[in-house]
Design a protein that fits this description.
heterotetramer, A: about 280 residues, alpha/beta, Glutaconate Coenzyme A-transferase, about 30% helix, globular, B: Glutaconate Coenzyme A-transferase, eight-stranded mixed beta sheet, 14 strands
Chain lengths: ~280, ~260, ~280, ~260
C-alpha cells in the first residue's frame, strides 16, 4: 500500500544518488514540484529518463543533478531550445551529460515493455535513419513467422518513477485523466514510485468504470502537492502556463540569470510555493 | 482586388490546401499544426487531426503551443495513452498523412532535427527526432512544411533523423518501405513534389511574386524545376481571415 | 467512415464463406445478434477466432458454419461444457472442426499485436506446459539484450471482426464501457468490421476524456440492434441473463433439442427479436 | 456446540483462510471465486481481487457466474482491457496469489483442463487452459482448490495445461521459473503442501471426521502424509453464515 508522505521525506527516502529516474508527464501533469525537491536535496549522478526533457529536466540538468539523459525529444515545446541541456551537451556545463537517444515510438514501447515485465520492446521503426548508428542499444530481431526484421530497444525499468496525478483517495488509489502519456507504464515499470497529487479526497469521483486509476499497492508514496504540476497543467484544475514556457527561454539562455532564478524560485522555496497555482483557472 | 499577405501566410495556406476532408492526419507542432487547423476551419471540416499526445480527432479553437495543450484534449473525440498512440494508431497504419516540419532538409526530403556537426561533439544540439522517425515510414504519405534558406535546405544532411526517399532517393524503396514518403514539400517560396523517376524534390508551383532566382538563392542545392511549373494560387480572403483569426486567438490565449 | 447498414446487409456484404472471423466480447457485449444473422445466412468454412468460444460459437459450430476454431477457453462459463463444440471435436458433427488452441495471455497478446501492425506477439508464457507440443504456431524468440527466451504467437489479423458496443453517434463513432475485453484490438486488427450497438444517438455521452471510443473511420459498418448482446449484457442497458446460460446446458446436450431450438429461435427470427431484451434491466 | 457443514463448505472455508489481507489475488471462476470472496467478507476485508476480465479490486456482493459478470465491473476500483490485464498486471508480476481450480491434478500439482485421452482424438474435450498457463508461472504463488476423487487426482496427467512443480517435481526450478508455484492444495478432505525436498504435494492437515483411508481411496496416487499432520479447524459460525449468505444471494441473483 502507498505511504502518505510529505515531499521532502518521499524524495529523501526514495531517490538516491546514481539512480535511474524517470519523471514523466507528456506536456500534461509534469511533476515540477517533485523535480524541484530533487534539486533542493542536491541529488547527483542521476540517469534521467524522459520522452520530452523540457523545462523540468533543463532545470535539473542545469543544477548538476544528472550525468546521463535518456530521451527522445528535448526542447521547450513551441518555444525553442532547452538551453541548459544544450550547454551541458555542447560545453559540459555544469558537468558532462551522456546522451542515450531514441525516438518517441521506441521510448513509449520501452516503457510499455517495462510495465509488461518484458526484457525488450519491438517496433516497426528506425528505418533508414542514423540514430541506430550512434545508439548501440537499438538492435534488430527477426519475426519467427514472416522473416521480417523489426527494431528493438531494451525495456525501461527505472529505479524510481515520479508522476503527478489529479487526486488520490484515502487508501492511496490514484486517478489520472486527460492526456495520460505513459504515466501508468512508468509507475508499473519502476522499482519505487512517488506520485504527487492535486488533492487527497474521500471519493476519487472516477467518471467511468474504465477510468485511469493506479491502485494504492502499485505506488510507493503519495504526496499532496496542490499546483505541483505548474507550469504544466492538471486537467480540470488549472491550465498550462504557456507564458512561463515563453519566459523560460530568456531566463535559461545565460548561466547567471538561470542560477539566480533557481536560487530565488527553487532553492529558497518549498513545495508550498506551488499552491498558488492550484487555484488559477485560466479561461479557455 | 489584391490582398496583402506574408510569405509565411502563403506557406500555411498552401499547406492547408494539400489536406483533404477524408484525411486522418498525424500533426506535428508549429507550422504543421497551423496548416492542419486552417484546413479544418476552411475546406476540410471533417478532417481527423491526431497529435502524438494521444488526442484523436481534436478540434482546437486556438493553436496549441505544445503537443499536449489542454485545448487538444478538451476538444478531442477521445484521448489515448501515448504508447497506444504509437502502437495502434501510428504503427497500426491508420494515418493517411503525417505532417512534419524540420530544421534541415535535403533534396530527397530526408530531415534532420537532431544535430549540426558531429553527433558526439555537436556544434548545435537540436531537439531530436520525437515522433518523426516512425511518422516518416508509418503514415501513408508525408507532407513537409519548411521556410526556405541555405541553412535549412542543405546539400548534405549531417544526420538523418527521419527518412524521406533516402540519401540517394532510392533507399526508401530498397528498404521495402511500402508507404509513399514525402509527396509534398510546402515552402514560403514554392511547392516541391518528388520527381516520379528520381524522387528528387522538384519545384512544381511558385508562389505569386517569387522568382526562380529567389528559390535558387535560398536552396543549398541546385533545385530542379518541373517541365510545367504553375503559379500558386494566392491566399483568398476567407483563408487569410480564418488564419489571422486563429493566430490572434492563439496569441491572446498564450499570453505571449 | 462507417456505413450505417441493417444487419442482414452488413453480414451479406462483409462476411464471406471461408473467412477468418472474430466475434469478440469477454462475457460482456458478446455480439449474439450478429452471430445469429451469420447462421441464418448459412456461412460455411469459417475460421472462428475467439478467446472464449461460449454459447455464440456453440450455436454457430453446431449449425455447421465453421471448419476451424482458434480459441483459448471453450465452455459455458460457470455452467459446464459447450456440448455442440464438443460434439464437433469428439464426433465431427455436424462436420469436422480443426482446433488451434492458445492460452488467454497468448490470444490477448496476439490481438494486441494485430492492432499494432506487428507480425507476432511475445510473452512470458507457455512455460512447462504441453500446448506448444500440439500447436506448432507457438514458437520462441531470444531477447537480444538478456538472452532470455520468450514464447511467440502470430498476430491475429481477422478478415472480419464483429463486436457489440453500447452506442454510436450519427457520424458512426462508437463507445464501449465496462468490461471492454479485446474489442478495440479486434476492430483495429481486422480488415473489415461490423459493430452492432444498442442505440444510435446525437451525443455519445462519453463520461471521460479517456473513454473507450472507436472513431468512425476505423469501422466498416455500424448496425443498431437493441438487445443484440443478449444473453450477454450491455453495461448500463441490461444485465447478463444467467438463466439462459444455465438453460443452454440442457438445450444443447442433444442434437435434436439443439436443432429444434435453433429453428425456432434463430432461423425463424430476425434481429428485431433481440429488442425485447433491451428494456430488461434486472435489479442487481 | 458443533456445527453441521458439508465437505464443500469445509473446503471453501479452508481455502479462504489461506488468503491474507495484503494479497493481490488473481481469481479463477467457481470454487476459487467463492473462497476469495469469503476471505474478503471475513478476515481479509482489504484483499485485492482481480478477475481476468479486467476488473481490479472488485467487491462483488453475489458470486459471479462468469468471469465477467456486470457485478464484477460495477464494484471494481477500475476495469482495464483484457490485453492490459495479461500484460501489465499478470505478466507484470503484480499478483501475490493465483487461485486456480482444475479438472485433473497430479502429485506435483500440475493441472489438466484441456483433454482426456489423446489430444487429437480426445475422449473428453475439456474447456482448455484459459488464463491458467500464465497464471501458474507469473503469480508469486499458487493456491489450488479441488474436491478429491480418483478421476481428478490422477497418477499421470494426459496433458499438462498448467505447470505445478513439473512432471517429476524438478522441472519448474530447472526451467528457471522464479515464482513459487503451488504452495497449497485445498480439498474437501484435507490440505496438501509441497514437500520442501521433493515438491510432492503432501497431506499436512486433515479435515475433522475424515480418515487417512478416505484420502487414500480418493487419490489416484499413494499420497504422502507429513510427519506431523494436524486436524483442520472446523468452520466457525461466522464463516458458515457468511458463506451461506453469499451463496443464497448468488442463487437468487442468477435465477438458477
Amino acid at each position: 500500500m502507498a505511504k502518505f508522505l510529505d515531499l521532502a521525506t518521499a524524495v529523501a527516502e526514495m531517490v538516491h544518488d546514481g539512480d535511474v529516474l524517470a519523471l514523466e508527464g507528456f506536456t500534461h501533469l509534469i511533476p515540477f514540484a517533485a523535480g524541484h525537491e530533487i534539486i533542493r536535496q542536491k541529488r547527483r549522478d542521476l540517469t534521467l529518463v524522459r520522452m520530452t526533457p523540457d523545462l523540468i529536466y533543463d532545470q535539473m540538468i542545469g543544477m548538476g543533478c544528472a550525468s546521463k539523459l535518456v530521451f527522445s525529444w528535448g526542447g521547450n515545446p513551441g518555444v525553442g531550445s532547452t538551453h541548459r541541456i544544450r550547454d551541458a551537451v555542447e560545453n559540459q556545463w555544469p558537468r558532462p551529460l551522456a546522451l542515450e537517444e531514441h525516438s518517441h515510438a521506441a521510448m513509449a514501447n520501452a516503457y510499455e515493455a517495462g510495465a509488461a515485465n518484458l526484457p525488450f520492446a519491438m517496433l516497426r521503426g528506425y528505418i533508414g535513419v542514423d540514430l541506430p548508428k550512434v545508439n548501440p542499444q537499438i538492435r534488430k530481431i527477426t519475426c519467427p513467422y514472416t522473416g521480417e526484421e523489426l527494431a528493438t530497444v531494451p525495456a525501461i525499468r527505472p529505479d524510481v518513477g515520479v508522476i503527478h496525478a489529479l487526486r488520490a483517495d484515502r487508501e492511496g488509489n490514484v486517478l489520472l485523466e486527460g492526456i495520460t502519456g505513459c504515466q501508468k507504464e512508468v509507475v508499473l515499470a519502476s522499482k519505487r514510485t512517488i506520485v504527487t497529487v492535486e488533492e487527497i479526497v474521500d471519493d476519487l469521483r472516477a467518471p467511468s468504470p474504465n477510468s485511469v486509476i493506479l491502485p494504492s499497492w502499485t505506488i510507493g508514496a503519495v504526496v499532496a502537492v496542490p499546483g505541483g504540476a505548474h507550469p504544466s497543467y492538471a486537467h480540470g484544475y488549472y491550465t498550462r502556463d504557456n507564458s512561463y514556457y515563453i519566459a523560460w527561454d530568456k531566463i535559461s539562455r545565460e548561466r547567471e540569470t538561470f542560477l539566480a532564478w533557481m536560487e530565488e524560485n527553487v532553492m529558497n522555496k518549498g513545495p508550498d510555493a506551488f499552491a498558488v497555482h492550484a487555484g488559477r483557472r485560466a479561461a479557455s | 482586388m489584391s490582398l496583402s499577405y506574408s510569405p509565411n501566410e502563403m506557406m500555411t495556406v498552401a499547406a492547408a490546401r494539400a489536406l483533404r476532408n477524408e484525411d486522418v492526419c498525424f500533426v506535428g507542432i508549429g507550422a504543421p499544426s497551423a496548416a492542419c487547423n486552417l484546413a479544418r476551419m476552411t475546406h476540410a471540416p471533417q478532417i481527423t487531426l491526431i497529435y502524438e499526445s494521444g488526442t484523436i480527432a481534436t478540434k482546437p479553437n486556438v493553436l496549441p503551443l505544445s503537443i499536449g495543450d489542454g485545448e487538444l484534449c478538451d476538444t478531442a473525440l477521445t484521448t489515448v495513452p501515448v504508447p497506444e498512440m504509437f502502437r495502434y494508431w501510428l504503427q497500426g497504419g491508420r494515418m493517411t498523412v503525417g505532417f512534419l516540419g524540420g530544421a534541415q532538409i535535403d533534396r530527397f526530403a530526408n530531415l534532420n532535427t537532431t544535430v549540426v556537426g558531429d553527433y558526439h561533439k555537436p556544434k548545435v544540439r537540436l531537439p531530436g527526432g520525437g515522433g518523426a522517425p516512425e511518422i516518416a515510414t508509418n503514415c501513408h504519405e508525408i507532407f513537409i512544411i519548411m521556410a526556405m534558406g541555405k541553412r535549412a535546405f542543405v546539400d548534405k544532411l549531417p544526420f538523418i533523423t527521419s527518412m524521406g526517399h533516402g540519401p540517394t532517393g532510392r533507399e526508401r524503396r530498397a528498404l521495402g518501405v511500402k508507404s509513399k514518403g514525402p509527396t509534398r514539400l510546402i515552402t514560403d517560396l514554392c511547392l516541391f513534389e518528388p520527381d516520379p523517376e528520381t524522387q528528387e524534390m522538384t519545384v512544381v508551383s511558385i508562389h505569386p511574386g517569387v522568382t526562380r532566382e529567389q528559390i535558387i538563392e535560398n536552396c543549398g542545392w541546385t533545385p530542379s524545376f518541373a517541365a510545367h511549373v504553375v503559379e500558386t494560387r494566392a491566399p483568398d480572403a476567407k483563408e487569410l481571415e480564418v488564419l489571422r483569426d486563429i493566430q490572434a486567438r492563439t496569441k491572446a490565449a498564450h499570453g505571449g
